Amino acid sequence: xxxxxxxxxxxxxxxxxxxxxxxxxxxxxxxxxxxxxxxxxxxxxxxxxxxxxxxxxxxxxxxxxxxxxxxxxxxxxxxxxxxxxxxxxxxxxxxxxxxxxxxxxx
Length: 106
Fold this sequence. Notes:
Elements: E1 11-14, E2 20-26, H1 35-52, H2 55-59, H3 62-66, E3 68-74, H4 80-95, E4 99-104
Parallel strand pairs: 2-3, 3-4
Antiparallel strand pairs: 1-2
Helix pairs in contact: 1-4
Pfam families: DUF6572 (PF20212)
């Protein structure tokens, strides 16, 4: 699964400190016209919808006590436009009560 499959959760795991981590696998190059950003935004919204649906606490009881992380594993280092988007995404996701992170994995 990947960022392009916006209706799927790519990976769900439990971190060493027992947080539920939802990871997006993003293999797309960053473009200047914003298509990649739109795809990623749709995927992030789907992840938030999944969390808000209440399915995680049903299957991962530690989520209530320890928390939830949305992370992105990125193949291509973000350009300036993408970095700004990721900063805004972090603000929005944090304000919803969840953690956000991204990692560059070439």
